[in-house]
């Protein structure tokens, strides 16, 4: 017979203890432990034996792979991030900030999947069916194979899954559904863990592809226990600036494809539209009259090259300590680049405020943007401009050397395709320049060499 047991669970990391603690010993957060009551049940020897009899090991060489195991979502950018499409029997976790468009993209995905002859069930635990209908009318989503079910109880959801037999199941969201087997409230660590276990059983045993929406905390992490990300097959973050129209779909974990792939969308009144050439999107507002401190760099998002504008502003400070502000570039990385400029180039910034901004709100993590940031700051401080048809690529070392970057050929081809005439790259890369007919490749070894190579003209005063 099942027995009731009380435990204290950290809502941040999932740590469990038999007594209350003010501070979680695992993650170090204060006042995150809440009391939860659950039932304990023991598995009899006979039932355990029956379960074990159904499981038989087989040789890996004898396992046959079904070529139809992966199918398209109907959205090319989504397929790109997933590594070619959804995999039957897999679980995909989609997380993002409130209002970023998670429900929108999954509703459009449900329509596209049904258009390809499949059946989908959209479970909305946060909205009523009529509210989902209103949004679907705005998005132009209509299908005879897309079912909408407004429900929070997993027991009721399982009954509808058995009746409808969908090939794609969408849960919006995992923090809003609950199971009656646990007495804790929806969104708790125990509820999220148990509901995910139920979804895993549904996905693997019924061969249903499950896509789950996950909330994020104010720090930007997925709400709930970390085990949630370990249990699912794919983790995707939906990112973007709420005050701008573009959105980025970024893959952080994928058991069936590559990670760090990025899909780019544009949020419009009628939903999300794919951006097949994101570099044009980020450069379309760049003015022809270039001012000091503006450069274009070639960065990589996953395997996709992107051309992005970086702007720097340098001015005399009115504070005892000069300000250093960075948007889209790691703050410590900026301080390191400024230190290299002062020591290796002789640029005195001790009494100057420095502001660096990546246009479009993109966050750049790779060091290949170092040289572009350094040249943006230098040209603004010296009141000169970089040639508007020049792209800059390179990592910056502490001794002032320009170091190699990966996927350089892809970056050069992207710049050539968009009509740029010159690109500054590290000399350490072995390039076949004859492959690039429409763009001039300037190889530099040190930071000081790149400054003289990229300067276009002095501005008129």
Number of helices: 12
Report the portion of residues in β strands. 25-35%
Separation, N- and C-terminal Cα atoms: 87 Å
- Quick one: CATH superfamily of the largest domain? P-loop containing nucleotide triphosphate hydrolases
Rg calc: 27 Å
Biggest sheet: strand arrangement:
8-7-9-10-6-11-12-13-14
Task: Please summarize the sheet with the most strands.
Answer: 9 strands, mixed
Low-confidence stretches: 44-50
- How does the helix and strand content classify structurally? alpha/beta
Number of strands: 25
Helix coverage percent: 25-40%
**Average predicted local confidence, pLDDT:** 87
Query: What's the CATH architecture name of the largest domain?
Result: 3-Layer(aba) Sandwich
At the third CATH level, what is the topology name of the largest domain?
A: Rossmann fold
The CATH first-level class of the largest domain comes to Alpha Beta
Shape descriptor: globular
Number of domains: 3
3D architecture notes:
It is a single chain. The protein starts with a strand and ends with a strand. The chain folds into 3 domains: 3-40; 66-275, P-loop containing nucleotide triphosphate hydrolases (Rossmann fold); 281-458, Ribosomal Protein S5, domain 2 (2-Layer Sandwich). The longest helix is centred in the middle third of the chain and has 18 residues, at 189-206. With 461 residues, it is an alpha/beta fold. Helix 10 crosses helix 12 (447-454). The protein contains 12 helices and 25 strands. Strand 9, helix 6 and strand 10 form a beta-alpha-beta unit.
């Amino acid at each position: 017979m099942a027995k009731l047991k009380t435990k204290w669970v950290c809502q941040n990391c999932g740590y469990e203890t038999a007594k209350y603690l003010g501070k979680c010993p695992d993650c170090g957060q204060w006042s995150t432990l809440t009391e939860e009551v659950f039932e304990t049940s023991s598995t009899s020897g006979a039932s355990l034996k029956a379960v074990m009899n159904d499981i038989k090991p087989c040789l890996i060489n004898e396992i046959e792979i079904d070529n139809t195991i992966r199918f398209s979502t109907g959205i090319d950018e989504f397929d790109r991030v997933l590594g070619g499409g959804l995999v039957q029997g897999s679980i995909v976790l989609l997380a993002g900030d409130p209002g970023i468009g998670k429900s929108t993209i999954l509703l459009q995905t449900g329509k596209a999947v049904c258009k390809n002859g499949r059946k989908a069930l959209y479970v909305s635990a946060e909205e009523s069916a009529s509210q989902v209908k209103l949004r679907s009318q705005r998005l132009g989503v209509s299908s005879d194979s897309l079912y909408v079910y407004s429900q929070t109880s997993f027991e009721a959801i399982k009954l509808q899954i058995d009746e409808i037999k969908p090939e794609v199941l969408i849960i919006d969201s995992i923090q809003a559904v609950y199971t009656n087997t646990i007495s804790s409230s929806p969104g708790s660590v125990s509820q999220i863990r148990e509901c995910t276990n139920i979804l895993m059983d549904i996905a693997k045993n019924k061969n249903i592809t499950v896509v789950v929406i996950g909330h994020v905390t104010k720090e930007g992490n997925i709400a709930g226990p970390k085990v949630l990300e370990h249990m699912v097959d794919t983790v995707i973050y939906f990112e973007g600036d709420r005050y701008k129209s573009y959105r980025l779909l970024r893959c952080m974990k994928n058991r069936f494809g590559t990670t760090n792939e990025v899909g780019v969308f544009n949020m419009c009144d009628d939903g999300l539209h794919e951006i097949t050439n994101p570099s044009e999107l980020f450069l379309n507002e760049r003015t022809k009259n270039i001012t000091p401190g503006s450069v274009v760099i070639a960065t990589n998002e996953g395997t996709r090259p992107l051309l992005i504008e970086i702007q720097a502003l340098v001015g005399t400070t009115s504070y005892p300590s000069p300000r250093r502000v960075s948007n889209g570039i790691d703050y410590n990385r900026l301080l390191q680049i400024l230190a290299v400029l002062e020591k290796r180039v002789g640029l005195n910034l001790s009494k100057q405020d420095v502001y660096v901004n990546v246009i479009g709100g993109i966050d750049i993590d790779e060091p290949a943007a170092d040289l572009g940031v350094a040249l943006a700051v230098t040209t603004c401080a010296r009141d000169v401009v970089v040639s508007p048809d020049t792209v800059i690529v390179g990592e910056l070392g502490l001794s002032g050397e320009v170091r190699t970057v990966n996927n350089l050929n892809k970056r050069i081809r992207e710049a050539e395709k968009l009509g740029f005439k010159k690109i500054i790259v590290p000399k350490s890369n072995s390039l076949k320049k004859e492959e690039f007919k429409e763009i001039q490749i300037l190889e530099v070894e040190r930071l000081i060499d790149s400054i003289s190579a990229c300067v276009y003209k002095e501005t008129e005063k």
